[in-house]
Amino acid sequence: MPDETGTEEVLKDIFRQGKTCFIPRYQLQSNHVDMLKLASPEEIASLPRTSWNIQQPSEDEVLEEALSTGGLDLIVVPGLGFDKQSNLLGRGKGYYDAYLKHCLQSQDVKLYILALAFKEKICLQVPVDENDVKVDEVLYEDS
Predict the structure, then answer these.
(1) Is 142 within 8 Å of 100 (Cβ atoms)?
(2) pTM of the model
(3) Could you tell me the CA-to-CA distances from 63 to 2, 43, 60, 68, 122 in Å, in that order?
(4) Among 56, 60, 71, CA closest to 26
């Protein structure tokens, strides 16, 4: 999204290092998200855009899902705001909270949850409830 930090260079570096890369595919009619495996940075550039202007694999494209391969060791999550208590404010649908809870419950690999943020998005406190999952670290300029 335009108000979030860009991850294009991070994704390119993942492939340069020979690591496996998964990106989200949101189901817009629900709060379900899957993390799907990509083969190359060029594949990312060719992905269609959703009504939210997010590039993701189309609904009919069959790709390997991260949890079917043993899970994720690192996930970079977006957000509208963050606080220094590792809370994040999302867009209200709970996509990442639901997926993170599922990961934490179903995989043996320790998951590290990282958020990239503009320093202007760091707040004293963001609203949270019992469904919210904390991040392990928020990286921002001057952090």
Answers:
(1) no
(2) 0.88
(3) 26, 12, 9, 11, 35
(4) 56
What's the CA gap between 2 and 117, in Å, rounded?
A: 12
On whether the CB atoms of residues 136 and 114 are closer than 8 A, the answer is yes
Token pair belonging to 89: 């404010």
Q: What is the pLDDT of residues 3-39, one digit of tens each?
A: 677 788 888 899 999 999 999 998 877 878 999 999 9
- pLDDT tens, position by position, 130-139: 989 999 999 9
User: Which residues touch 93 (CB under 8 Å, ≥6 apart)?
Assistant: 31
CA distances, 119 to each of 10, 84, 103, 115, 139 (Å): 18, 11, 28, 12, 9
